[in-house]
Amino acid sequence: MDFLTSSTHLHITTWFVGIILFLIAAIKPNKGLQMALRLFYILIIITGGALFIEAMDYGQGLNYGIKLLLGILVIGMMEMVLVRKAKDKPTTIFWVLFAVFLFLTLFFGFKLPMGMNFLA
Ligand code: HEM
């Protein structure tokens, strides 16, 4: 499964597309789009999970654990916004949490040793 870990580009592509799909679905709710987004959640977790396993050799278990948790939380907040929007419930707090977790995930992701490291 080398193609999953030879670079971080596949992971970056999946979360980038996921966030774009989420923003479109949040502006203009659409069932098909939401199903496509859920497929991308799975792709984000598979590509991130493969990098996580690869990272066992880096001796930064805690930081990678935090990165994994933050990535899952970003996905969770996207899902909360869309589901609550569909039920006409308030979404503000979940938008705020989405932005905070996304920022922290990007920060940790780019700081960690694989792939791009302009924050290191
Ligand atoms: C929407 C959610 C996510 C975003 C925005 C995100 C963002 C990022 C970014 C910016 C990087 C750095 C890429 C690079 O340095 O080239 C990265 C790497 C990584 N991500 Fe994610 N990620 C998300 C979800 C996940 C999930 C769910 C997991 C685990 C299952 C995960 C695990 C990893 C791992 C292990 C790395 C490698 C870190 C390194 O050493 O550079 N990510 N991610």
Describe the secondary-structure layout.
Blueprint: H1 2-5, H2 9-27, H3 31-54, H4 61-86, H5 92-111
The chain binds protoporphyrin IX containing FE.
Subcellular location: Cell membrane
Main location: membrane
Keywords: Cell membrane, Membrane, Transmembrane, Transmembrane helix
Shape, per Cα inertia axes:
globular
Mean pLDDT: 94
In total, the number of domains comes to: 1
Give me the Rg, rounded. Answer: 15 Å
Amount of beta strand: under 5%
Family: Belongs to the UPF0344 family.
Membrane topology: Multi-pass membrane protein
GO cellular component, one term: plasma membrane
Subcellular location: Cell membrane
Characterize the structure shown.
With 120 residues, this protein is mainly alpha-helical. The protein has one domain. 78% of the residues lie in helices and 0% in strands. It is built from five helices and no strands. α2 packs parallel to α4 and α4 runs antiparallel to α5. The longest helix is centred in the middle third of the chain and has 26 residues. The radius of gyration is 15 Å and the shape is globular. The mean pLDDT is 94. Protoporphyrin IX containing FE binds next to α2, α3, α4 and α5.
Features:
binds protoporphyrin IX containing FE; 120 residues; mainly alpha; transmembrane helix
What's the short version?
The chain is mainly alpha-helical. It is built from five helices and no strands.
